[in-house]
Amino acid sequence: MFAIALSFSLLLPVQKVPAVKPVVKADDPVVELLDESIAKTIGDIVGQTGTPNNGDLKVERDNVYAGLESLKQTGQERHAGSLKGWAFKIVERPAGPNEFRHIRFAWKKDGGGSVLLGFANDNSWSGKRYIGGPYALGGQGHTVVAKAPVEWTVVTRDLFKDFGVFNLTGILFSSASTGTAYFDHVLLGRSVEDLDVATDAALGKAKPKIALTGKLRDAAWADLIGDDGLKASAAFRTFLPVAAEQVEFLGANMPKQKTDSAKLARANACIPKL
């Protein structure tokens, strides 16, 4: 399964991500705050803060927890307190649109020190932070683990229990000035069970509802190698649960793609190892 995922990622071009954010409907139990379309998230943060330099925020495609991309961050912190479309209500009993209670995220840290993830309340920073590693919180926020994880680690927290009712409007990423932090799969959910369903889908553990063949497979392949980052992500999740069944199809189609010959050779070498 890893080999197929690697093969997919090697074929993907640098995505031209459309300017959209997650749209939450009344019946959506989960919203992705950060998972794919990382370039758009970076652009939103940089634009909101008015700071043109985004060198400490990068799209990472070789080191991810789920999907095709993660966020790579260096330096003390990067944050935006009010992102367009972000008005997520953290409440005890979420039921209506934009109402949630739980947060799930994956993070890791290279270079020691700490890793932080924080959230703004109506464009105000009031200690709503999660920390991995040694960091002087001053009583604000929660230390999730005493040592920053060096491998991808998934954290699930009850935002209402941790911080009470608030209006989540922005996000903060920090590697605490040293080393490099990675963030992926940041989801808001009404319940832990809802988050589990979303995570299974992102990791390719969800059983497909219909067989991936014919025109459906051709359309998914076209999206996967196309320029639309959101469509590529959706197609990746379509292929992933049935990747082992698609080796012959991939073997026939991968050589037709225009990509770096060395990367293509690596991808082709992975397939027989399944």
Q: What does this protein look like?
A:
- By secondary structure, the chain is α+β, with helices and mostly antiparallel strands.
- The chain has a domain of about 180 residues: Jelly Rolls.
- Helices cover about 30% and strands about 25% of the residues.
- It contains eight helices and 13 strands.
- The strands form two sheets. Strands 4, 5, 6, 8, 9, 10 and 12 form a seven-stranded mixed beta sheet that branches.
- A hairpin with a 7-residue loop joins strand 8 and strand 9.
- Helix 5 crosses helix 6.
- The longest helix has 12 residues.
- The chain is globular and about 60 Å long.
- About 5% of the residues have low confidence.
Order of helical and strand elements: HEHEEEEEEEEEEHEEHHHHH
Q: Helix count?
A: 8
Oligomer: single chain
Percentage of residues in strands: 25-35%
Secondary structure: number of strands: 13
CATH architecture level-2 label of the domain at 19-202? Sandwich
**How helix-rich are the residues, as a percent range?**
25-40%
- Reported by name, the CATH topology of the domain at 19-202 is Jelly Rolls
Largest sheet: 7 strands, mixed
Shape descriptor reads globular
| Category from helices, strands and their pairing | alpha+beta
Rg value? 19 Å
- What is the distance, rounded to the nearest whole angstrom, between the alpha carbons of the first and last residues? 7 Å
Instruction: List unreliable stretches of 5+ residues.
Output: 14-26
What integer is the average pLDDT?
Answer: 81
Give the CATH class of the domain at 19-202: Mainly Beta
Ordered list of secondary-structure elements with their pairings:
Elements lengths: L1 H10 L18 E5 L3 H12 L7 E4 L9 E5 L3 E3 L7 E3 L8 E2 L1 E9 L4 E7 L7 E4 L9 E4 L7 E6 H5 L2 E9 L5 E10 L2 H11 L11 H11 L4 H11 L7 H7 L7 H10 L4
Parallel strand pairs: 5-6, 9-10
Antiparallel strand pairs: 1-13, 2-3, 3-13, 4-12, 5-12, 7-11, 7-13, 8-9, 8-12
Helix pairs in contact: 1-8, 5-6
